[in-house]
Amino acid sequence: xxxxxxxxxxxxxxxxxxxxxxxxxxxxxxxxxxxxxxxxxxxxxxxxxxxxxxxxxxxxxxxxxxxxxxxxxxxxxxxxxxxxxxxxxxxxxxxxxxxxxxxxxxxxxxxxxxxxxxxxxxxxxxxxxxxxxxxxxxxxxxxxxxxxxxxxxxxxxxxxxxxxxxxxxxxxxxxxxxxxxxxxxxxxxxxxxxxxxxxxxxxx
Length: 204
Prior knowledge:
This is YdcF family protein. InterPro entries: Cell_Envelope_Assoc (IPR051599), DUF218 (IPR003848), Rossmann-like_a/b/a_fold (IPR014729). With about 200 residues, this protein is α/β, with parallel strands linked by helices. It has 7 helices and 4 strands; from the N terminus they run H-E-H-E-H-H-H-E-H-E-H. The mean pLDDT is about 95.
């Protein structure tokens, strides 16, 4: 039996679980998901006046090839949605966000596309990019979500505001098989996906 030391565990935790201090912003970015938790948190930030515009992004997971349905919250929000963005928009509406404050991005099928198509939508609808955005995402997805949104939107100051799901937190991820699978899976995907983009990223 081997044991990871505190430094190793802390390094993984600090890398994956990003979190920034909240400040007022121009928009809230919401990467696609079939769960409501991070979008419920985005709605709370809207109600508290942190941003006037929210962009839920997502068609479906590329690997699935279609929207597989609501994984959590169906009893409250329903199940009849064509894509992730429509589901997340309903979560926002039922949590106090006005329809006028929601700008749906309905085409993205993975995190890089969430960022790319959000940029395209902002330029098309508003003709400019925001100065500051809050990125509401799942806690263990924070590093990868920030990586792509900051890569695609370098002009925008992005504040990461994560929401833990299924007890996968920076304090407890290592204590369950599910937590280790989620966090170490993200660690693995980060390296793989950066390598896949080699040639599209400038390192200097």
